[in-house]
Amino acid sequence: MSPAQLQCIEPDCNARFETSSRLYTCARCGGLLDVVYDLESILAPQLVDEWDRRFGSFQAIDRSGVWRFRELLPEAAPDEIVSMAEGNTPILDAPSCARYAGMNRLAFKHLGFNPTGSFKDLGMTTGVTQARRLGATRVACASTGNTSASMAAYAARAGMKAFVFIPSGQIALGKLAQALDYGATVLQLDGDFDAAMRLVREVTSDSDLYLLNSVNPFRLEGQKTIAFELLQQRRWRTPDRIVAPGGNLGNSSAIAKGLKELLEAGAIPRMPRLTIVQAEGANPLYRMWTEQADRLTPLEHASTLATAIKIGAPVSWRKAQRGLEWSGGDVEQVGESEIADAKAMIGRDGIGCEPASAVTLAGIKKMVEAGRIDKDEDVVAILTGHALKDPDYTINYHRGELAFTDSAGTTRLLPAAFASPMIRVAPDRDAILAALE
Ligand SMILES: *Cc1c(COP(=O)(O)O)cnc(C)c1O
Ligand SMILES: [Zn+2]
After folding, report:
1. What pTM was computed for the model?
2. What are the boundaries of each domain within the chain?
3. 91-117+219-413: CATH class
4. What pLDDT digit, counting tens, does each position of 177-210 carry?
5. Average pLDDT in the 149-154 region?
6. How much distance in Å is there from the Cα of 303 to the middle of ligand 2?
7. What digits encode the pLDDT tens for the residues 104-132?
8. How far is CA 367 from CA 101, 375, 431, in A?
9. Which ligand neighbours the alpha carbon of 285 most closely?
């Protein structure tokens, strides 16, 4: 592990701070912070060999898909690390999805295979470890669901008290159930995620509560290992493109940072193009990108059934913008029906995911049709959460009852092109045989 520092990402500031200071944003200008390392002292060939060697290790720290890469993580002593063998998530071929999108091949890296079923665990192992290093005993976050489930689990492992701020009635039931089971105190607030986010930042700025949203740069350090593990699994063969959903934009930013560090350490020869996909009703980055604006304008009201990305004022937009520049990236948006059908198609490959993850496939399909992705490209899409996170959405889709209310207040039923049959049958042999025809 390297002696790391915090550095403001604003080019005209770049102020540096010690990692032992309890800062979420720059003390000088309020900008977002990066954890930075002395990359020149890190030599890629030895590093990559060492990382590969750890696959055969029985040490818990080596078997974590995050801490395996500890040379590029903030320093922590073994007894300070709060880990649950997170990471180690598979890359799965998806032939039906490839055909659906018009690609020759397509693969998903499925982060729903993590301990609490989403990529948030990668950020919580480093975030809660940092909380412990700072002596925090109480942690807090605002959440669309998965952050709270994950923080509650890792806080429980660390013996800390967890407080989660959620928009009342707007998170998937599976996620709320997890947070409760892991012993968190759940504060249900009227208003949306963006309001809950504002409130938790206010409350944590003047109390002992340690903030574990992705504005906290230690979260993103864990999440950047998505890029490390993805490349390692591919024997360091760089894909042409990595496609990820965009909500608060922490995860896509973290992936970009991980790729840039691999490039600078000499572990990969070029950056894959980062492609971020948003829901049409929660698309502030897409707007900024297509309007070629240099600042993001938050949306007043975000609306999408993919609750994990229902965010109008993404905290990490500046880091996402930087990641798109570094990698020659791109941004797409997709509609609710496209998301719902893509999710069902991901199920048809035996993979499955939660709604927010399915924007990747929907976005790829749309970009192939528009000629923005070539059918021969080597593309890996990031599935962010497990299918069981939001069973209501799935059941409603297959029943043909999935209804979406847009920000203008208009409700419509989404067509379900890939609904699976659910048939009521009398408990009788002949009736069953007839139904099987
Ligand atoms: C948190 C989350 C996202 C969005 O990630 P951001 O870092 O907020 O952009 C997407 N999908 C799932 C399942 C999530 O939990
Ligand atoms: Zn600054």
Report:
1. 0.97
2. 91-117+219-413
3. alpha beta
4. 999 999 999 999 999 999 999 999 999 988 899 9
5. 98
6. 32
7. 999 999 999 999 999 999 999 999 999 99
8. 9, 10, 46
9. 1
